[in-house]
Amino acid sequence: MAYEWDFAFLWVLWPHLLVGLAGTAKLWAVALICGLGIGLVVGIFRTAPSRILRSIGTVYVEAIRNTPGLIQLIWFYYAIPMVTGWQASAWLAAVVSLSIYTGAYSAEIYRAGIASIERGQWEAARAIGFGFGAQMRYIVLPQALMRMIPAFGNRAIELAKATTLASTIAFGELLYTAKVIAEDQMRPLETYTAVTVIFTVILLPVSYGCVWFERRLARRGGVHRD
Amino acid sequence: MTEEVLRIEGLRKAYGLLEVLKGIDLTVHRGETVCLIGASGSGKSTLLRCVNFLGYPTEGRIYLEGRLIGRESGGKMAYRESKLCAVRTHVGMVFQQFNLFPHLTVEENVTIGPIKIRGVPPAVAHEKAAEQLRRVGILDKAKDYPSQLSGGQQQRVAIARALAMEPSIMLFDEATSALDPELVGEVLVAMRKLAEDGTTMLVVTHELGFAYNVAHRVVFLHEGTIYEEGPPQEILVRPRRPRTQDFLRGHTAFRMPEPEMTPAAAVDG
Ligand SMILES: Nc1ncnc2c1ncn2[C@@H]1O[C@H](COP(=O)(O)OP(=O)(O)O)[C@@H](O)[C@H]1O
Ligand SMILES: [Mg+2]
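YS: structure for the whole thing
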């Protein structure tokens, strides 16, 4: 017997999916901003003259990159109340863990971008009398950030996908909402198909945008590949 | 003689086990142009980099404007990076590879140091930048980005950038070696003009014509020591010691003496 597709229920329930999508968007935006901020600091640590700062950066990046994101999420979900004494909401645990997760990966983007700036640029800035911080702020980062944009775009896509992990701690993002609807309607195939379509429609343009920007940079000689 | 701007005493510099500078004593007076010549690998760049502390001396003392740089501790010098930043603002450096900041316009390249380090108001900094850019004959490119300029133009901007900090001394590390031959002249002319204006300069160069015509004193570096020094007419024309003679034999045939340079012809402004 062939499966009979029936999307009719979604015509009624789509506002719920929209609420879920809003949860995804909020989690994505906050974790992306926090993650890029953490990444900037850690990326600079990783290139700093101080060995201690470099080691701190390395330990953090390697610890996060070599453990599954799902385990980090669950770990934070239980660790936050133990450390802070507050009952961690699913939202807080998701934001904290995804920020830290994105921070580690974007730190690598910053580090590579900073490393791609020629030694002569640092030296010229140093010779004028700029200290490490000013060299970074006025000379290196402005040049490096441009080269990092495509990588940040890819990171944003990865993070959008990773937000679905938060469904495991019952945070009301798109996948969690879909799960509830699927069980309620006993129509998992249709529901998850809808989720897949939504992700594709939103992320595909971003993905193409990154490729386009990368090509444009490469044409202008702005991107150093390794 | 006039006052000392730079005094180097017993300078040694080693990279690991490789001792590159083996006890250098050198003094540069105000308004003086000293040319540093020597074979590749003799330690010329290392010497310049020690003077503005892009590399730390292993041993020895460096005095700038009569002040000892660093702190004495147990017979050795100790340097604090934060103090050295201030020292570097008083030492201008021009690199072989120009190293202009590509994301900034010519004008911004020249003003960023005075504005961000010295706290000069932007309006004043721009006025002074214009003055330095005029000196090196490149004021008309003030709004351009470095990538729009020829190598010779970029190097002249790099000179203006260093001058804008109003340094006590200007260091040039083979400022014309990366240039196409037809662009070398315009940079040498700009440097000559600075020297004639009384800028204190320590110049590493392979352009012996420049050294002959512009330097007050020529220093020949050989294997990390000052092997011979004196007025250019002596060192470049009648060197007394064998290594200097060998070195010059490789150059003189086609470079000495340089045809007379006329500042007006190559530098407009
Ligand atoms: N950062 C460094 N580490 C190790 N060795 C170096 C370094 N910089 C220069 N050297 C060595 O020091 C010697 C002198 O170099 P350099 O000062 O650049 O000479 P020059 O400028 O006269 O050609 C060379 O043998 C070079 O290989
Ligand atoms: Mg050299």
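YS: worth flagging: Chain A touches chain B at residues 49, 118, 120-121, 123-131, 134, 138-139, 142-143, 146 (CB under 8 Å).
IM: good catch. Also The first helix of chain A runs from residue 8 to 47.
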